[in-house]
Amino acid sequence: MSGEACLPGPLSGVRVLELEASGPVPFCAMFLADMGARVLRIERPAGWDAAPNALGLSPRDDVLLRNRRRLALDLKTEGGRRIARRLAQRSDVLLEGFRPGTAERLGIGPGDLLPLNPRLIYARVTGWGQDGPMATRAGHDINFLAATGALAALGRPGEPPAPPLNMVADFGGGGMLAAFGVAAALYETRASGRGQVLDVAMVDGVTSLLSSLMSFRAAGAWERERGTNLLDGGAPWYDCYATADGRYLALGCVEPRFFAGMLDFLGLDEAFAHSQFDRAAWPRLRDAIARRVAEHDQAAWAGRLAEVDLCITPVLDLAEAVEHPGLRARGTHAVVGGRLQPGPAPRFSRTPGCIRSGAGVDDEEGMDDVLAWWGVPLQD
Q: Which residue stretches of 267-362 are H helix?
């Protein structure tokens, strides 16, 4: 999965030109690079020596930037744009996350590059999409969740919505959707010989992730108030409970056999046997579960849970998750350059993904070496 043991991945031979951005674009590029794509990141001249971003993270510490080589170009100069166009001519994919119209003003938009490279897949990742009244408006993960209805469904009743980190819009609805789109476009290009432009909007991706919730709503099986439904913490058998030491257990006992197993495991009264979908009984059931879980600390529960097949799991923090036996056995995590990070996913039997270099690895080569690595002639 890392280092010298790397084999050619499923995207070996694909060249991805990544224009510096934050969030979904580097996440998408990481996915493609893990799968063997050759990724070149075009950065502002400050590059790796830039100050930490608004969240305090420097480029050298950003796991999303692994498996790259990089080149500093000032795209506001004609010289920088000329080199970018030469690189794009030898690329299969270009990733950018500018506001709509920015790439065009720089002279590196699809209209500039596709005539030079008709097979180029030009992937554009934004919050609101390339057109429409919101296209040029600013936003972050929380704003896109708010606009799509996702945020309103997250949290406890009577409390403000709870932001789920920036995993849903930035990474799930943005970067991962972009990676899927790129893979699909690469497949199509094999037959057509033609590239195309991908308009990846995080609001579209988040809305796709809401498919099941929309189904529940259409069937009349989802209440508008958050925290009152089957899968949002409203059901007592799908929620988190405090243990004696202030830690938590997560219960996901959806199927009737797991619900019955939970009652038996916790030693709860048989009177609750028919209460799984009886909302009137939920408050009493919740109290009973809470009292029982609070009788022991999390470690004691973990020991007992190791002997049963139930959908009940200790809630671990990130440092503890690394030691989880199931995750350790899979090699779910990796440590590269002293930095904990996810291993490549998904798994391929013949062409596995691989971490070849971490984010903080310096390239000593200059521009000529990078251009040669990309297959670009040193002279126009």
A: 282-293, 298-305, 318-321, 325-330
